[in-house]
UniProtKB/TrEMBL annotation:
Cofactor binding summary note: Binds 1 [4Fe-4S] cluster per subunit. The cluster is coordinated with 3 cysteines and an exchangeable S-adenosyl-L-methionine.
Cofactor requirements of the protein: [4Fe-4S] cluster
Stored Pfam families: ThiC_Rad_SAM
Keywords from the named record: 4Fe-4S, Iron, Iron-sulfur, Lyase, Metal-binding, S-adenosyl-L-methionine, Thiamine biosynthesis, Zinc
Gene behind this protein: thiC
HAMAP family from the UniProt entry: ThiC
Superkingdom per UniProt: Bacteria
Residues reported to bind substrate: 69, 98, 127, 163, 185-187, 226-229, 265, 292
Residue numbers binding Zn(2+): 269, 333
Residues annotated as binding [4Fe-4S] cluster: 409, 412, 416
High-level lineage: Bacteria, Bacillati, Bacillota, Clostridia, Lachnospirales
Catalysed reactions, semicolon-separated: 5-amino-1-(5-phospho-beta-D-ribosyl)imidazole + S-adenosyl-L-methionine = 4-amino-2-methyl-5-(phosphooxymethyl)pyrimidine + CO + 5'-deoxyadenosine + formate + L-methionine + 3 H(+)
Protein's name according to its UniProt entry: Phosphomethylpyrimidine synthase
Species of the source: Blautia celeris
């Protein structure tokens, strides 16, 4: 090949088939996309070994993409059930699946994903190391942490979350600046604990160049993990979060020097009024590298409804610069999501993503809404169902309360403003009570 990674190709002016496919989806000239990729402002996560992948581009000026977290755990070991969730998520429009498996035969599940799934596949190698080596955390060596990264690369994953921003220096500042909820990132808490018990530097930070070499070899996107993301609104935008983000900005530049694609992970829990500023700070410190956010969740009091708190924050975040939303389900903070939870989380996240795309003027975004509005004006119920995010639910709701007259709904009946305006503007007589 004439290039190593998609970023390398873009910098050499080579248009890849992945660029062509992604540009077509974005209704964008492929050379414009290539220019943004050369700058690091757009990425196409695509491991060379993920042959079933249908590529998608991620960047703040493109359609906002969503990621769905799934995976097997000690309390939910059914691999086939997780695969069913994966397939449903893809059908519902998720562009990415992140395998967070933390129990059992994780490699078989991961390889099945990269063999069968057309969505972008991401993983967190630090979880898998604990499962794979099956020994006390402090006995895992630096070399073993890195070997797991290579294993995931060989298995075909398109991006990996690597918690390399929390080094000895940032960990020291975290301990000096107390938080309400400490570190809530699973990967961040694991590597922090390992550093505390061994007294060693974070191996992902210390051997960062070696990790970049692996990413370059397979064309894996580096997803710079936010170990210090805030776990409650009280901790948002604190010293630990911002200090780590500064480090991630430095690591972004080092990745680009090796033509490795990068995205940066962000909050977390955050009050509404801080979201825009956080997006702008990230864009400045990381020079426009795509921002991948969990939520942000804008309040801490809604267990069972955190897909809503995350959708509110996600819409604002994407409007002001985030390009990739990690979905949150109603089960967040409570349990592993079931099939219905996954659906609710995806729908909420897609609403947030689409609302942001309209706000930031993404090409073609509002066309969908205009088609829906036209169908509503015509009282064309079947077209409305076809256009909506969840046709099954919309159709079921109407069927459960069938109106007396087909051109109304059970809420308005003869008082339907749309029907009456259509009639009066066509010169008909409107007599609501006589009908």
């Amino acid at each position: 090949m004439q290039y190593t990674t998609q970023m390398d190709a873009a910098r050499k002016g080579i248009i890849t088939k992945e660029m062509e496919s992604a540009a077509k989806k974005e209704q964008m000239d492929v050379r414009e996309l290539m220019t943004l990729m050369a700058k690091g402002q757009v990425i196409i996560p695509c491991n060379k070994k993920h042959t079933s992948l249908e590529p998608n581009a991620i960047g703040s000026m493109l359609r906002t993409k969503i990621n769905v977290n799934l995976g097997i755990s000690r309390d939910c070991k059914d691999m086939d059930m997780e695969i069913e969730k994966v397939n449903n998520a893809v059908k519902m429009g998720a562009e990415s699946i992140m395998d967070l498996s933390s129990y059992g035969d994780t490699r078989t599940f991961r390889r099945r994903l990269t063999k069968e799934c057309p969505a972008i596949i991401g993983t967190v190698p630090i979880y898998d190391a604990v499962v794979y080596y099956h020994k006390p955390l402090k006995e895992i060596t630096s070399r073993q942490w890195l070997d797991i990264v290579r294993m995931h690369a060989e298995d075909g994953v398109d991006f990996m979350t690597i918690h390399c921003g929390i080094n000895k220096e940032t960990a020291g500042k975290f301990k000096r600046n107390k938080r309400l909820t400490n570190i809530v990132s699973r990967g961040g808490s694991i590597i922090f604990a390992w550093m505390e018990m061994t007294g060693q530097e974070n191996p992902f930070y210390e051997h960062y160049d070696e990790i970049l070499d692996i990413c370059r070899e397979y064309d894996i996107t580096m997803s710079l993990g936010d170990a210090c993301r805030p776990g409650c609104i009280q901790d948002a935008s604190d010293i630990s979060q911002i200090e780590e983000l500064i480090t991630l900005g430095e690591l972004t530049k080092r990745a680009w020097e090796k033509d490795v694609q990068v995205m940066v992970e962000g909050p977390g829990h955050m009050p509404l009024d801080q979201i825009e500023a956080n997006m702008k700070i990230q864009q400045t410190l990381c020079q426009g590298a795509p921002f991948y956010v969990l939520g942000p969740l804008v309040t801490d009091i809604a267990p069972g409804y955190d897909h809503i708190t995350a959708a509110i924050g996600g819409a604002i975040a994407a409007t002001y610069g985030a390009s990739f939303l990690c979905y949150v389900t109603p089960a967040e903070h409570l349990r592993l999501p079931n099939l219905e939870d996954v659906k609710e989380g995806i729908i909420a996240s897609r609403i947030a993503a689409h609302a942001a795309d309209i706000a930031k003027g993404v090409k073609g975004a509002a066309d969908w809404d205009n088609k829906m509005s036209t169908a509503r004006k015509k009282l064309d119920w079947e077209e409305m169902f076809r256009l909506c995010l969840d046709p099954e639910k919309a159709g079921r709701y109407r069927a459960e309360a069938k109106p007396e007259k087909e051109d109304t709904c059970s809420m308005c009946g003869n008082f339907c403003a749309v029907r009456n305006m259509n009639r009066i503007l066509e010169g008909e007589i409107v007599s609501i009570y006589d009908e």
